[in-house]
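TL;DR need structure tokens for one chain.
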Amino acid sequence: MDLGIRGKTALVCGASQGLGRACADALAAEGVNLVLLARTPSTLEKAADDIRERYGASVVTVSCDITTVQGRRDAVAACDKPDILITNSGGPPTGDFRGFSLDDWRKAVNDSMLAPLELIRMTVDGMMTRGFGRIINITSWAVKAPLDGYSLSTGPRLGLTGFSGNVARSVAAGNVTVNNLLPGVFDTERTKSLLGAQARQLGITVKELVKRQGQTIPANRLGNPAEFGAACAFLCSAYAGYITGQNLLMDGGRYPGIF
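>> reply
TL;DR here they are.
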């Protein structure tokens, strides 16, 4: 299926690995030109080279930290007319909220709420003027089903969710959509890192913990990042213009509610 976005340009945050990279792959496969952002130059360039080789895509890289003012300026300077914006930030530390300081909260709010909010502010009017825009925020399934120990993640991302809902309604008439993708447990390096720490605490192998995790998910497995990327690409497509202000939960059926 041709998604109708060949030749569009996407600004993709956290694109060197994990779910950001999966989104970049899926968009490249549709003929989208990419501007990839990440903090580490070596992994970013490796990802860019791989995408160019596999898809023949046009790829520009910007090594920057989008949680800073200068990082966002560098990103938008390299891609001042994006048709697609994928916001994505690394998850903050987990733990008991009693142990977090105000500085911890300020950093979490800046990274997971204010940074994507600012990128949206800097790009959405241009999308409106050009008559096409797709904004996807990668958040977390914890927004839908809060998890013990994830307060630093859930709180700021709920703020971003509310902000996105407001913006989505205000720009919909300009063929600009704003949606959130809520990943559950996917087979990424971050997941392996988190599970590795848990496995050491439990005195078991990561493989055994992955198996246990899978047993808590109706799909009986962790998510494949390519599945996430494909969902992102569809929401960015020419056919998704009537889908906006939504939160798509991708957790293999783990969330027990109906809505």
